[in-house]
Amino acid sequence: MGRSPVVATYSIVACDREAGQWGVAVQSKFLAVGSVVPWAEPQVGAIATQSYANPRYGPDGLALLREGRSAEETIAALTEADTDRALRQVGVVDGEGRAASFTGDECHDWAGGRTGQCYAAQGNILVSEATVDALAVTFEQNAHLELAERLLECLAAAQAAGGDRRGQQSASLLVVEKDAGYAKLSDTVVDLRVDDHERPIVELRRIFVLHREIFGVTPKEDWLAVDVELASELTERLSKLGYDGGDLERAFFDWAGTANLEERVEGVARIDPVVLGALRKQSA
Question: What are the structural domains, with CATH classification, of the chain?
């Protein structure tokens, strides 16, 4: 029997139904774990496929969920059709927030999972079950956080509880929401991967901060009105950076595009304070 590489890892699949988001967070002593384990589709569900991972569990599982199967029914259908199911591990959350987790009898110890409302946590080749417990408890205790940050907290807690007993190498964070991604033309809200790093969760958190700076949303009531004084400051700072000309709006938009902040710009009548901070930092 040919075996796929062991994607020994811990992961959590989850959703925030009120926000309309589904996501997966994962860490492993495995190169580029984000290229194999996480799958998600808004209003449909999220899936993590690992251990001797069957990559078809991702698209095939989402197809089953799209047909209306529950998380439990989806796992049953996937594993019943797989002669190597004893080697597999998979977690699923469906469109209704129902969760299920499966660990085959031949997965390497420690291996297992926990489920609760809107999440499934699982792992294999772990130091102990404390890693999965930490995923579950941290998710349950952080309902006040947005889903992406909540999942990052889960990964950090799981690592602190022991993690993959072989060590660390890669991590990934995927969150989807209908029409909430780039330019409101994508369903992918967050798709960040650390493929090879000594401390992948720390690095994942660092690039998540960068992601939030570029793609995050500041409530409109917190935006600043651009009065004469602020307009003068903007003109001066843009000119210092080489964006000259009498058209402040054009110069501001051109700078924002090169700074990858165009998603946070809507003319120059009002300005996102995050964008203003970035301009001030660049032109200091």
Answer: 6-215 (3.60.20.10), 220-282 (no CATH)
- Write out pLDDT tens, residues 49-86: 999 999 999 999 999 999 999 999 999 999 999 999 99
What does 143-164 look like in DSSP terms, one character per residue? Answer: TTS-HHHHHHHHHHHHHHTT-B
Alpha-carbon gap, residue 26 to 192, rounded angstroms: 11
Q: What is the pTM of this model?
A: 0.90
pLDDT in tens, 146-165: 999 999 999 999 999 999 99
**DSSP E strand boundaries for 29-169:** 38-41, 45-52, 88-94, 99-103, 112-116, 119-123
For helices 228-240 and 273-282, the axis angle rounded to 10 degrees is 40
Give the residue ranges of DSSP H helices in 81-180. 130-141, 147-160
Count of residues in the chain: 284
Taking the C-alpha atoms of residue 280 and residue 261, their distance in angstroms, rounded to an integer, is 14
Tell me the C-alpha to C-alpha distance, in Å, between residue 61 and each of 31, 57, 64, 226.
23, 5, 5, 50
